[in-house]
Design brief:
about 625 residues, alpha+beta, 5-stranded antiparallel sheet, 5-stranded mixed sheet, 14 helices, about 30% helix, about 25% strand, RMC1_N, Mic1 domain-containing protein
């Protein structure tokens, strides 16, 4: 039975890199560092076509056929091409404009050594890996020569390279399970701590037991790991295969840090996609995903079960049909997945199908928050959780809000720290706002505002959810934006819950703000006490004196406004005209006279004369004394 499409949480990229498949006249190579596919026809004599992740990185050229090409790679930026045709040397061709295009060659320095391969660590730095060690060179394209910077003698069975970290891993000893890493940076080579891979069975007599096919290096959550695919072994009493992750720090010892339980046996392939370890099982044609940052409650700290049930990759309709010839190439790197000769895809994680496959919403949120394109999926999950409208789901809602606001708070603190440091002119990298940062505006726009308008949901549950979100923000010491309080007030008013509104304001559940006070003022016709609640709030703010005066004058409470402005010490600087105009509009001449006299007395005290200054905002009316 075919799985429904929404159940596929893995898919291939829409536009694969297409190249001529491997054949007797065409060799295909993949360069992990530059993500480039090389199609070499007739040793390069009839053409070399290089294709990268996008069309702009495509290159085509010819080179002399000097024998079968064993390996071919560009340096970073396509500046220098390196080609290995023999086990003793590597040839180079300049692709820098105005530099000589003639080939030049470099033999390995170690006598009787065979070159197993090479790795570019910079645009002009290259490492030869031989069966007797490694040789680190600097390339001088203008002089068409190389300079040996450093070398290290060590017996090598095979090697792996991680371009993101410029670390080469060498398999040493007879059994091959002692691994020696080297790090390269800016012309320097550093020997890192060697470590041992625990084999399921120790062979007797000793023989090479660790294959390069069972080892991969990858950067996960910014840390370098060596992944060991440990197969099922009857004699070791291990019921199924597992992937063992060894954490490889720049300094210090490499330690076994995570074990991924595959719960099956057979042939596997590994990928890293969006910091997830993806394990493909050949016989069942399904894939499993693991997140090493998710802790399993019922397992040992660093033992992980698959996050989701096994699923196949979403079927891909081939745009063209062609003969299937399997190229004799090593496995593609962790982040790229090939499914057919002549096509190369990126593997992608689809987040929407995971929502229904992972029932634990707290765990689902932990999973989503670590993914690259997670924002809209997270917001849809929040809406989905609220759809039930049952009070029993409030603890789940609270958990989700807390997880979102923890990430939100960490970002705000990083931003604040960056601002403080930047003011001190110290160099610091600005924090990146990832899609995992769900702020109040996001929640208001995409979840809460539409949620409050749903007629079928109990208003008590709506208010409980809004207050839960505000509680979470306060708990994480995040200043609550006024529009969230407004949403609460509007919901309370809509259901005539004025008593609850009064309590929320009286006990400061809703924090004071000018916008909130203005909203309360607008509710006066519906709820008369809102006027006084608004004034009390403005007084508590102590920075809203002008607003309070305006409110009182608009209500024709001119003497009240005058008394208030005196109480806060602002009487000497206030505009007389504003008060006199308001008094005149009441039609009460006695009131106008009282206000007028008040300002005359102020003028007398300040300037020694009751007269208003020329140009002062005096109202265009006759003085009461003139009448």
């Amino acid at each position: 039975m075919t799985e429904p499409p929404q159940q596929h949480y893995l898919e291939l990229s829409e536009n694969p890199v297409q190249f001529e498949h491997a054949s007797s006249v065409n060799n295909v190579f993949f360069d992990e560092a530059n993500k480039q596919v090389f199609a070499v026809r007739s040793g390069g004599a009839t053409g070399v076509v290089v294709k990268g992740p996008d069309d702009k990185s495509s290159v085509a050229f010819r080179m002399d056929d000097k024998g079968e090409v064993k390996c071919i790679k560009f340096s970073i930026g396509n500046k220098i091409l390196a080609v290995q045709r023999t086990s003793k040397s590597v040839d180079f061709i300049n692709f820098i404009p105005d530099y000589p295009h003639t080939e030049f060659s470099q033999e390995c320095k170690t006598k009787n050594a065979n070159v197993l391969g090479f790795c570019w660590t910079n645009w002009n730095e290259i490492v030869f890996i031989t069966d007797q060690g490694i040789e680190f060179y600097q390339v001088f394209p203008d002089k068409r020569s190389l300079k040996l910077l450093k070398n290290q003698s060590i017996n090598v069975n095979w090697y792996q390279y991680c371009p993101e970290t410029a670390v080469i891993l060498l398999s040493t000893t007879v059994q091959g399970n002692i691994l020696q890493p080297f790090a390269f940076r800016n012309g320097t080579m550093s020997k890192m701590s060697k470590f041992e891979i625990e084999l399921p069975v120790i062979p007797k007599p000793a023989k090479l037991s660790l294959s390069e096919r069972d080892i991969a290096m990858a950067t996960i959550y910014g840390q370098l790991y060596v992944m060991y695919l440990k197969h099922h072994s009857r004699t070791a009493n291990s019921p199924s295969a597992e992937v063992v992750l060894y954490h490889l720090p720049r300094e210090g010892a490499c330690k076994k840090s995570h074990v991924l339980k595959l719960n099956t046996t057979g042939k596997f392939a590994l990928n890293i996609v969006d910091n997830l370890v993806v394990v493909h099982h050949q016989s069942s044609q399904t894939s499993l995903i693991f997140d090493i940052n998710l802790k399993e409650p019922d397992c040992a700290v660093n033992t992980h079960q698959p996050v989701l049930p096994a699923r196949s990759i979403h079927p891909y309709r081939m745009p063209l049909a062609g003969p299937a010839v399997v190229p004799s190439q090593p496995p593609v790197p962790c982040h790229v997945f090939t499914c057919s000769p002549g096509y190369l895809w990126y593997l992608q994680v689809k987040l929407h199908p995971t929502v229904n496959l992972l029932q634990d919403k707290g765990k689902l949120m932990d999973f989503l928050l670590r993914r690259r394109d997670c924002k809209m999926v997270i917001l849809s999950v929040c809406s989905q959780i609220l759809e039930g409208g049952v009070k029993g789901s409030l603890p789940v809602v609270a958990t989700v809000f807390d997880k979102l606001n923890q990430v939100y708070k960490e970002y705000l603190e990083a931003e604040q720290s960056y601002t403080v440091v930047s003011d001190g002119s110290a160099a610091q990298k600005r924090p990146v706002r990832t899609q995992a940062v769900i702020d109040q505006s996001d929640m208001y726009t995409h979840v809460l505002s539409s949620f409050t308008e749903r007629k079928e949901v109990s208003h008590k549950f709506v208010i409980a959810v809004l207050m839960e979100y505000i509680r979470s923000l306060n708990q994480h010491q995040i200043t609550v934006q006024h529009y969230l309080y407004e949403l609460v007030i509007k919901t309370l008013v809509q259901h005539n819950l004025f008593y609850m509104l009064h309590q929320f304001l009286q006990y400061h559940v809703l924090s004071d703000s000018k916008p909130l006070a203005c909203l309360l003022l607008s509710l006066e016709s519906t709820y008369p006490p809102a006027h006084q609640l608004s004034l009390d709030m403005l007084k508590r703010l102590s920075t809203a004196n002008d607003e309070i005066v305006e409110v009182l004058l608009s209500k024709q409470q001119v003497l009240g406004a005058l008394r208030f402005i005196r109480s806060v010490g602002g009487h000497d600087n206030v505009s007389a005209r504003k008060f006199l105009d308001a008094a005149r509009q009441t039609g009460d001449q006695m009131l106008f006279y009282t206000v007028f006299r008040s300002f005359q007395q102020r003028n007398q005290r300040l300037r020694g004369s009751p007269a208003f200054n020329p140009g002062e905002n005096k109202p265009r009316v006759h003085s009461p004394d003139d009448e």
